[in-house]
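Course assignment 3, question 2. Fill in each field.
Student: A.L.
Task: Predict the tertiary structure for the chain below.
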Amino acid sequence: MKKLLILGPGCPKCQQLARNTEEAAKALGMDYELEKITDIMEISKFGVLMTPGLVVDNQIKSSGKALDVNQIKELLA
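Answer field:
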């Protein structure tokens, strides 16, 4: 099971990244758990300076942009 984290305070870009990540994971038929981290102190522990951030299995894959579904699929594949 992949652990997917969305890092961000809940802004529109963060919400879009969460939706796109979920759509990408479902399209790939992936077994996953999606969690949203909104606490700035928790986000800073990952070293992400700009939100939204995408973390896959404790590895930062993206920060500062809301990736589209196809971009996320490439990161998850």
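Instructor remarks: The first helix runs from residue 12 to 27. The chain has a mean pLDDT of 96.
Grade: pending
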